[in-house]
């Protein structure tokens, strides 16, 4: 049975919620209203624009302070951070890495960059993250343990790591996921690209994994133009991350000795200058985003067939992207809603196509993905820029 939602009514609610009459309303745009000009000008005036400089060190310090992680290592983007992170935990050619089918393509691409095979797992309806119970049952069935490592019984490849994604800024169930990772000897990496400013049980996301990853792309909660970071509480991991992201060069006044394959992944100082200005405003951004989310929640409270997705009970989310979920019987209304909103300049968006449906990953192993498949058909992201939110938070 398929029923249609009243698209005009939904458009009206979104117009009311965003309150920008006559304008095109992007899904997410950066807010550059702090000291961005001042700090970037300072870089230009002093000539420190590249991979060495005060701002990149300061930005790392501020990221560590804000997230409570012991170390932050700034890199060129979130994808590079994932690639480097997987290398650091020891993912190698022919390994498998578990990750949700419901994620942005960068998570799966980074696994492929290591010569490893992405293995897709299902999501949880209440968190939009990995379902730890379903994962545990699945791993019980498909893995065999040997010398403290899990092997995929079918492919006999080692399953080395798991990447937990905090979808749209909503923290996955980290305690339970951590427990499953320990049980099956998997290194946990948190893809917290969307989750700066999101807390799991009072503690900032990014502190459960061996390391975790942030992104400062133009559409993320704060931006450096392009940028990313690795967070870790392990000093050894932090040292390797810094070393390998700067071409693995041994410190010397003139010799060029590199002790392993390294990467040119260091975030340039001029980008970090933007980041320093942005992170000074993050509390304000998140207050506004949370107040926008609350406004949407009220507006959609009594709308039949649509649920505004709320943070899990254990979480305090940044509400990076606000999300509507259609009831199953209204699935067929999704495209007409996308069309009606775009026609009115409200740039809504469906969720990503599941990774296992993309050509390059279609032959990768995956578990039953019924929840992710259902969510894929029914989710719509709605405009979420912080400037749309009120000051009160
Ligand atoms: C944005 C994003 C990334 C990649 O970050 P970039 O900085 O764009 O490379 C990775 N994972 C998720 C979940 C993201 O949203």
From TrEMBL:
Keywords: Aminotransferase, Pyridoxal phosphate, Transferase. The modification N6-(pyridoxal phosphate)lysine is found at residue 220. SUPFAM superfamilies: PLP-dependent transferases. One of its GO terms (biological process) is polysaccharide biosynthetic process. It holds the Pfam family DegT_DnrJ_EryC1. Its cofactor is pyridoxal 5'-phosphate. The keyword ATP-binding does not apply. Coiled coil: none annotated. One of its GO terms (molecular function) is pyridoxal phosphate binding. Belongs to the DegT/DnrJ/EryC1 family. This is Perosamine synthetase. It comes from Alteribacillus bidgolensis.
């Amino acid at each position: 049975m398929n029923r249609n939602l009243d698209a005009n009514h939904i458009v009206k609610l979104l117009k009311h919620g965003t309150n920008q009459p006559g304008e095109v309303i992007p899904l997410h745009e950066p807010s550059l209203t702090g000291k961005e000009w001042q700090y970037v000008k300072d870089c230009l005036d002093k000539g420190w624009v590249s991979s060495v400089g005060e701002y990149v060190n300061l930005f790392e310090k501020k990221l560590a302070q804000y997230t409570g992680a012991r170390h932050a290592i700034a890199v060129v983007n979130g994808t590079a951070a994932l690639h480097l992170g997987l290398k650091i935990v020891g993912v190698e050619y022919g390994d498998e890495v578990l990750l949700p089918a419901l994620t942005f393509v960068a998570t799966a691409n980074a696994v492929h960059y290591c010569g490893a095979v992405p293995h897709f797992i299902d999501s949880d309806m209440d968190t939009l993250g990995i379902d730890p119970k379903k994962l545990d049952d699945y791993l019980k069935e498909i893995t065999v343990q040997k010398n403290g490592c899990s092997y995929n019984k079918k492919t006999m490849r080692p399953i080395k790591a798991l990447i937990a994604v905090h979808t749209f800024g909503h923290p996955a169930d980290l305690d339970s996921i951590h427990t499953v990772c320990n049980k099956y000897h998997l290194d946990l990496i948190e893809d917290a690209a969307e989750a700066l400013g999101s807390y799991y049980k009072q503690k900032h996301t990014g502190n459960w994994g061996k390391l975790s990853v942030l992104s400062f792309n133009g559409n993320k909660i704060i931006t450096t133009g392009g940028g990313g970071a690795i967070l870790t509480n392990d000093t050894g991991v932090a040292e390797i991350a810094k070393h390998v992201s700067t071409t693995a060069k041994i410190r010397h006044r003139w010799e060029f000795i590199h002790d392993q394959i390294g990467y040119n992944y260091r975030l340039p100082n001029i980008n970090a200058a933007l980041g320093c200005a942005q992170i000074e405003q993050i509390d304000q951004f998140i207050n506004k985003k949370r107040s926008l989310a609350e406004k949407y929640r009220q507006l959609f409270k009594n709308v039949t067939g649509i649920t505004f997705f709320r943070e899990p009970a254990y979480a305090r989310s940044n509400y990076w992207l606000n999300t509507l979920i259609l009831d199953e019987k209204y699935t067929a209304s999704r495209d007409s809603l996308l069309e009606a909103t775009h026609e009115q300049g409200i740039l809504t968006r469906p969720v990503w196509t599941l990774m296992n449906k993309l050509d390059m990953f279609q032959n990768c192993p995956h578990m039953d993905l019924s929840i992710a498949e259902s969510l894929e058909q029914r989710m719509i992201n709605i405009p979420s820029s912080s400037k749309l939110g009120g000051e009160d938070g």
